[in-house]
Write a sequence for this structure.
């Protein structure tokens, strides 16, 4: 009887360890992907808190009122998509689309598009949990900036009519 238990434990322990090790190895890429997505989402949430414009100053265009550059901006740039392709495809499609379009609008210096995509990043639940009080406040400041212009007086900024979506 003792010999049978010893043989059983000698066989069972290595089999259980092999199954557990194989399971962890098989799930490891998924675990890492989840961690990376969570970290990037946290980074974007943090950066959206700080995306508000500087205090409006006369003689500066709207894009000059964004005094910071952001890590997620580089991550979503067109020239970096190829090297980040698999990871970007694992993110929520709305997040990838609106974040990349946000920075394309910035490069094109299109305030209406900038605000539209920023609003989607902050308010759209399909993007992820990016909304914070600070990010909503930053969006409000950009909206006020678009209406009032750099001088704070309505109508002093050249704008195209808002696009309907």
């Amino acid at each position: 009887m003792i010999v049978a238990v010893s043989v059983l434990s000698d066989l069972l322990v290595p089999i259980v360890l092999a199954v557990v090790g194989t399971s962890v190895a098989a799930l490891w890429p998924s675990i890492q992907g989840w961690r990376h997505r969570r970290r990037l989402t946290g980074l974007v949430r943090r950066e959206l808190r700080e995306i508000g414009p500087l205090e409006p100053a006369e003689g500066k265009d709207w894009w000059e009122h964004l005094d910071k550059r952001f890590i997620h901006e580089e991550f979503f740039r067109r020239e970096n998509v190829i090297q980040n392709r698999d990871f970007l495809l694992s993110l929520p499609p709305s997040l990838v689309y609106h974040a990349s379009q946000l920075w394309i609008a910035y490069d094109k210096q299109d305030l209406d598009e900038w605000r539209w995509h920023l609003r989607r990043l902050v308010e759209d639940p399909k993007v992820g949990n990016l909304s914070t009080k600070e990010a909503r406040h930053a969006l409000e400041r950009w909206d006020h900036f678009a209406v009032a212009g750099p001088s704070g007086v309505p109508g002093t900024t050249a704008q195209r009519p808002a696009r309907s979506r």
Observations:
- The helical segments are 2-49, 71-75, 85-90, 93-108, 111-123, 133-148.
- The CA atoms of residues 51 and 69 lie 9 Å apart.
- The radius of gyration is 24 Å.
